[in-house]
């Protein structure tokens, strides 16, 4: 009976929905605090140790090499770190040797453990101190170990370390910008820092946390989330956005896997190709998610996204590994435009339909928009604050945004669940009501059926009695020589009729019963030339008289009138009826000669007094008689109603 | 010479009634029938002035004979003679066109008296029959849709007044005194009530038949 809006309202007012809203707000506030704190910590870390005994080496001699032999064929040229290969040696792909000279950092103890810290070296590095190899980051030939995100800490053996004029050689394996999918993977060497191992280890840990651990944690988180969402989507088929979102999260988590494994079985070209290709399905899923979440669906867009999935790798293959970066960046722009368009479309629809989560999603998608623009700016080498550029912004930002959207989706799911629960309980209530009604109706029907059958049976018995017994009694009435016998037979016939009527007759209105009695009594008395004076209640009553009581009272009254006609010799008869809430009284009084007393003081039995009293008793009433010779007779009948 | 139809299946009662009728109407000729079928044949052959019909007969109900007489010989007065005193049995007969009823077990003199009165146009009317008539006309006026060709039968105020008083238990002579009307006028009202009951019942039956699709035009 209640309309859907009623349920909605119920949900609105229900306290339980407040809690998730508050929780979501708290979660968002924590997320913001986390991001701000992280950025602050990142910016503050170098400042905290600025005064420590750490030497920063920026000027080195560098030479390209074709093998890992220490002295190259090319004359070394001086240059300043950090060294971006895309600027210092464009299109070069291979090994570069760097040589730097340094003294023991001032203020350091002679036995203090010192270390070399390289914040960023891409893709791999080997370190030599005074001609001795002291460190290797992994494979230097294809497939090269991919160390771009891993800050390197190299402990300097004190036996090799001189107080002055130490020679530090770094052999760096890197890739040309043109051959990688993102700028972050291009050959590069950051500044070198030499100082106490303890301090530098701290730096490495902080940097490593943001570059590696945080990315890994978030990848695991959204991977699990993705699986949960896929299951949710599988359970509620109508809400396809759960599935899209789940697959999007899972795909992103899988793409982040490369942070885990530095040593892949494929060379750089394959790895970068796979990485770039992965963006096509991810963007397709993101666009599909936004569209389905906005309740939109377009076959055309679906087909275009599928086609793009094929087109992207094909163009990359056709362009070849040497043009990977340029093509990839062109695709990034296209993909970014697609995602931004989908976000704009979603927000437009959300605003038009006044969706409740419009502002939340506006915030999330706004941040996503900023992230995409920043990442594009990084790829196109636009000026940007150095610390932000050093962070894997996309790898950190996208999972956080996905978590934000997931919070929203889960709330939508919880609300739908709640609504379903509410409508289920409403439905259950209605089913209970309907069942009760059906049971009630069935009971009524069964009762009616019983009544019908009883009525039918009564009619059959009545018909049988009339046809058989009635006909025989009639014959006796009209053929008997004896007046007494025919009177008896007539009375028997009347008895039969009354009995049949009394079997299961319906209750009668008391007013109708009084009318019947009056008509019969007055007619009979007037036919016997006795003046009848009948007075009943003048006001209309709606009280009912059971069929049995009607029959019994009819018999009593008939008997009384018969007595008056036959025996009393009266000329006048007074009948009075009185009806109260609880009882009904009938008084019949004549002015005849009265009933003679028998010897034992009882009234004459021949006048049917005993049977009248007996009938009254059967109805829980009473029948009193007063009579005396010359005083007439009074019969008082009282019946409960 | 008056023809009287006597429809009764019990031979003893038929003989007894025949004697009774002969006493009341010495000039008449009595045609006896024990079955509905025989009675209907007689109705087509002989013109009757009075018909005494039992209700429960071996091959049907005397109501059919009453209806046939009402249809074919409107001048004939039909009286139901029955062992049933309840209006469930009597009312259909009255609706079919009977002008009164006699209860078989009544004493010879009483029946003779009633028969005489009925033949003089003074049919009996009990309170329960009056109540049935009242509710019959009440339900008729409630019916909204009534085809144009159906006669609308309504009781006059006086007829209604008589009916209401009978339903309250007053006898016809008493009502005559109360309304300051002669015995004959009251009897006319009752006769008129019976006639209108018959007409409106037939209209109702036709309407019902039409509604059920049973009605066919010749």
Write structural notes for this entry:
The complex is a heterodimer of chains A (641) and B (218). Chain A has a 6-stranded antiparallel sheet, with no helix packed on it. A 5-stranded mixed sheet of chain A has the order 15-17-18-20-19. Chain A has a 4-stranded antiparallel sheet with strand order 1-13-6-10, covered by helices on one side. In chain A, 56% of the residues lie in helices and 16% in strands. Chain A is rod-shaped. By secondary structure, chain A is α+β, with helices and mostly antiparallel strands. In chain B, strands 2-1-3-6-7 form a 5-stranded parallel sheet, sandwiched between helices. With 218 residues, chain B is an alpha/beta fold. In chain B, β1 (3-7), α1 and β2 (29-33) form a beta-alpha-beta unit. Chain B has 9 helices and 7 strands.
Entry summary:
Chain A is α+β, with helices and mostly antiparallel strands. Chain A is built from 15 helices and 20 strands.
Please tag this protein with its features.
heterodimer, A: 641 residues, alpha+beta, six-stranded antiparallel beta sheet, five-stranded mixed beta sheet, disordered N terminus, B: 218 residues, alpha/beta, two-stranded antiparallel sheet, 9 helices, globular
The side-by-side strand order for the widest beta sheet of chain B comes to 2-1-3-6-7
Helix content of chain A: 55-70%
**Mean pLDDT value of chain A:** 82
Structural class of chain A: alpha+beta
The total of helices of chain B stands at 9
Radius of gyration of chain A from the CA trace?
A: 55 Å
Biggest interface goes to:
A-B, 31 and 26 residues
Q: Which overall shape of chain A is indicated by the principal axes computed on the Cα atoms?
A: rod-shaped
Helix and strand pattern of chain B: EHEHEEEHEHEHHHHH
* Poorly predicted ranges of chain A: 1-19, 47-52
Low-confidence stretches of chain B: none
Integer-rounded radius of gyration of chain B: 18 Å
Look at the helices and sheets of chain B and give the structural class: alpha/beta
The strands making up the biggest β-sheet of chain A line up spatially as: 3-2-5-11-8-9
Shape of chain B: globular
Number of strands of chain B: 7
Averaging pLDDT over every residue of chain B, what do you get? Answer: 84
Largest sheet of chain A: 6 strands, antiparallel
